[in-house]
Design brief:
The protein is an alpha+beta fold. Strands 1, 2, 3, 4, 5 and 6 form a six-stranded antiparallel beta sheet that branches. Strands 7, 8, 9, 10, 11 and 12 form a six-stranded antiparallel beta sheet that branches. A hairpin with a 2-residue loop joins strand 3 and strand 4. The radius of gyration is 26 Å and the shape is globular.
């Protein structure tokens, strides 16, 4: 029975991976055809795959294995571990097994004898010949020849708008960023063989390695390298910019972005390569970035448990204004916040716990447009009780007693979300000088506009619900009131008909549940008049219903938003002019 169960779980995993790869493989065709509606459909389909295949496996073996004694599950794990040890995606297979085990046994306790709490995956075998992870390019025939080879081999059969222009742009930008390559010798470029597709873009990703004549590896210099590709209105490809900086590439792989479509027969190797380019990124974030968010959750938990062993700081309440729907705490040394849904909400929050969970599911499935933080959902998470500040324990017990229990010296939390820690925007601007304040408010307005263009209305747009990342980007992180923009009725405030109507405190006109009056944003979003005036000069159009209705019409007309995970000023200037010229026509 143990071997049969292991075989069934493995067959389910392989079916999941085949389906996952089939959807991912279609990304190239969708990009070439500029089939943007089906890009979003493919994202949703791929996100739903994991649960679908877990459901199938548990239905197949659940009735017979629920009564397995612990020793039987140990045998299942042993048989399964032997089967996946030599698989190039054995790391993902372990997570799939854990999901099946948790679903069938419904046992909140984590048992290393029956589950893969620590991985037994050793990296798997090297990829077969001809299926290497990267290709190496050298400027033996000059920089122009090398760049042309990269474009031709990594993006074959693609019509180019003006490849010669793009090559000149790339070389000029590369020499500006890294003058060391101007000689055209002594370096090489290693490029991932698979393209990274997301939204309306595709990315060639690799690294630039400058070799030192001494052959001392410690003296070699390495920089990340990425070439974002886009499609013109006429269906021709062009290179939009060059990225040759760790911070800029980190934003491309941000936790606020949708997951990439990238073919990865050897996910462990791809993540290891990306981690070398982005050492400040957690492996969990990189697995999520390539679409393996479930294994990203596994990696997060393993990394967090290890961090707890090596640290001694206490869990404390997260900084900022207390939320009315969530109670939030953090471990200061780990750059993560933990969000628990309160048992009761105040009357002004017309939402239920189930509706809050659904809002978080919407964010997981939707294009986050670089402006909403990704989350991981955990059930029955156990944390050492002695690491909690006593005041935080009191706060949690008062806010969400039904979600908590204390067992064997651990605090068991039945349901929570984890999210990257950020500085709340209201705290960030508290003592900011004029330049930083202006930048932050501009980012805040851009965040609202980009979310709206992606068909998300934040609902509660108070500054406290937005955070600032280490790259000084403003990101929305409070989802209990989000709606689809197309479901909102944006109205102008009616003119009062009598002096009495003008003087009353409450609206004298009818207000429906989906009605929003943008003119009122000016009053309740900002307390200080100087901040209100500054924001009005930057994004005053947000105070007009016409602006929001225009976005709704664009969405209804099927216009897909251009999402650039880099500053617009980074785009090649001639391309900006060409796009602007097209828009004017």
């Amino acid at each position: 029975m143990a071997q049969e169960a292991a075989n069934a779980i493995l067959a389910g995993f392989r079916a999941y991976r085949r389906h996952f790869e089939r959807i991912t493989a279609g990304a190239g065709e969708r990009f070439r055809d500029a089939d943007w509606p089906n890009v979003q459909a493919a994202i949703l389909a791929r996100l739903n795959l994991y649960k679908t295949h877990i459901d199938r496996v548990t239905a197949q073996i659940g009735s017979g294995s629920e009564g397995f004694p612990p020793t039987q599950w140990r045998d299942v794990k042993k048989a399964y571990a032997e089967a996946v040890a030599a698989m190039p995606d054995g790391d993902l297979a372990e997570t799939f097994y854990n999901s099946v085990h948790r679903r069938i046994t419904r046992n909140p306790k984590l048992d290393s004898e029956r589950m893969f709490l620590a991985t037994s995956f050793n990296g798997g075998p090297p990829p077969p010949a001809g299926e290497g992870l990267t290709s190496c390019y050298r400027p033996n025939a000059g920089l122009t020849g090398m760049v042309r080879r990269i474009l031709d081999e990594r993006v074959p059969d693609m019509p180019w708008q003006d490849q010669g222009r793009d090559i000149r742009n790339i070389i000029r930008s590369l020499i500006e960023a890294r003058p060391e390559v101007a000689s055209g010798t002594g370096f090489r470029v290693e490029v991932v063989n698979a393209l990274f597709y997301r939204n309306k873009g595709a990315y060639i990703v690799g690294r630039l390695r400058l070799d030192d004549a001494s052959s001392d590896a410690s003296r070699q210099r390495v920089w990340p390298l990425a070439l974002p590709l886009a499609m013109s209105a006429s269906g021709d490809a062009y290179v939009d910019t060059l990225i040759c900086d760790e911070d800029e590439l980190s934003i491309v792989f941000s936790f606020t972005r949708a997951y990439f479509m990238v073919r990865a027969h050897y996910p462990f190797g791809l993540v290891r390569f990306l981690n070398e380019l982005l050492p400040n990124k957690k492996r969990s974030e990189l697995y999520a970035a390539i679409g393996q968010h479930k294994h990203g959750k596994t990696e997060f938990h393993r990394g967090f448990v290890e961090h707890l062993r090596q640290s001694n700081d206490a869990f404390v309440a997260a900084p900022g204004i207390k939320g009315m729907v969530m109670t939030v705490f953090t471990l200061p040394s780990y750059q993560t916040v933990f969000k628990v849904i309160r048992d009761e909400f105040p009357p002004q929050k017309a939402v239920t716990s189930d509706e809050v969970r659904e809002k978080y599911h919407i964010v997981k499935r939707h294009d986050r447009a670089g402006r909403m933080a990704d989350t991981q959902e955990f059930k029955d998470l156990r944390l050492p009780l002695d690491r909690f500040d006593p005041e935080l324990i009191d706060e949690l017990c008062a806010a969400a007693p039904s979600a908590l229990s204390i067992e064997d010296g651990q605090l068991r939390i039945r349901h929570l979300y984890t999210e990257r820690a950020m500085t709340p925007l209201n705290l960030y601007i508290e003592n900011a000088d004029r330049a930083i304040l202006t930048e932050a408010l501009d980012e805040y307005g851009n965040a609202i506009k980009q979310l709206a263009a992606a068909n998300i209305f934040p609902g509660d747009m108070l500054l406290k619900n937005f955070g600032v990342t280490r790259h000084r980007r403003v990101v929305f992180y409070d989802y209990d009131e989000i709606s689809f923009l197309t479901d909102i009725n944006f109205r102008a405030v009616p003119e009062p008909r009598t002096p009495e109507e003008e003087m009353v405190a409450e609206p004298w006109y009818s207000v429906g549940p989906s009605d929003v009056f943008p003119e009122e944003f000016r009053r309740f979003l900002f307390g200080k008049p100087e901040i209100k005036r500054l924001f009005a000069t930057l994004h005053g159009d947000l105070f007009t219903p016409e602006y929001w209705r225009g976005l709704q019409q664009a969405i209804a007309d099927g216009h897909a938003m251009d999402v650039f995970p880099y500053r617009r000023k980074r785009r090649f200037s001639n391309q900006r002019r060409a796009i602007d010229s097209q828009a004017q026509k």
